[in-house]
Amino acid sequence: MRLLFCLCLAAAPSLRAQAPVRTADPAVRGVPLSEFPRFVKLSDKVYGYEEIRQPGFTTVSLVVIGRNGVLVADGQGSMQATQTMLDKIKTISPLPVKWYVVGSDHGDHTAGNSVLPKDIRFVVHANSLVQLEKDSAAAVAGNRPAVIVPPAAMKSDNETIDLGGISVRVRFLGRAHTGGDLMVEVPSEKVLFMSEAYLNRVFPAMRSAYGAEWVRTIDRALALENVDRFIPGHGFIEDAKASREELITFREALVAVIDEVKRLKAAGLTVDQAIAQANWGPYAKWFLAEQQSPIAIRRLWTELDGASK
After folding, report:
1. Residue (of 63, 58, 88) closest to 74 by Cα position
2. Which residues contact residue 165 at a Cβ distance below 8 angstroms, ignoring those fewer than 6 apart?
3. Strands (E) located in the chain
4. pTM of full prediction above 0.85
5. pLDDT tens by residue, 37-54
6. Cβ atoms of 231 and 193 closer than 8 Å
């Protein structure tokens, strides 16, 4: 018995070492950049797609394969990166990409959309459609690459798409990171792709966010009864158990950031003073904390003033 006990103790550190480090930093996670872009197989018909973007963390897309074609949720941040994704999809399915869900309307997910098939069917929330129209006009005025604007917005907060042998449910659970945040649930696989409503170990990015509503949106996602695995828009794709734990951790980070801004504002500080004095605790070590924290303070400041309706 003593020998068996000793052997178990010796094996325990090795088993623990196999668990991925909870971080958005590939170097700390122990994943060489040469591995990207890569698919993460979620089931025989569902894949996550992780690509590296500057300054060195993942942008995640979802790929769902049915008998009638392929659905992609969220693209990548350039035409080249999105074309690479389309080329990679051909290695796992010969079927055409027929559906595209705009989970996030931000450029790091949409800037490559001009290389998508011309007859692709877009699914986009009305709030994101308005934003893409604004971005398109600004791109034309600034002589920048075109921003693709879908022809119409979805007519409700839920839309089911039958891909042939597998269906997805496109959900709007509330405003979060962009205001038009769409999620894609694959009920048969118990998977929910949350786009930028879930940033795994990335400091809450809030340039166009709705702080308090974002927390409630995550609560609705966590309350979904048929979801076991939550897929982020940035950061690493985790296994089912870790994905729920990390989503709860991200919710806690959102609440902590909001509470810290409330504290600083109540202390009578100016925005610039608040940026200098903010204490983020453990979240100060999260990816992009130095870059994103001042943006979060300014955005939440206006929200607390009632200016970000």
Report:
1. 63
2. 45, 66, 67
3. 38-41, 46-53, 57-65, 70-73, 97-101, 121-123, 158-162, 167-171, 183-186, 191-193, 229-231
4. yes
5. 999 999 999 999 999 999
6. yes
